[in-house]
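Here is a tokenized protein:
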Amino acid sequence: MKCFVILTIIILLSACSKNNNHLLDERMQYWEITLESNVTKGTSRESIKQWALKNSIEFFENPETKSLYANVETIADSGIGFPCSEWNIILEIQLDDNEVSIGHSISSVGTCV
């Protein structure tokens, strides 16, 4: 009986995780395409600022790394919410000394217990 309960819990956690991962992956891919289309290499800081304003995105700057960061979307976990109840999609845009973009990345960070 104990084995059955453990197996059931594992299956339920796996099912919940897969649903959440699919949506999270889909939304991260959306943001990747959006950045590739709107913030290409060589885009000026001012153009990035205007694009962000138009799309209600608030960037924060890390002067040490010359990067702009924004939490653009939060996705609730579709399962039991353990250990993470939601996932945040973070955009990072790297700038060079001339304050133009030289690359970007997208990552997710969980809001976890």
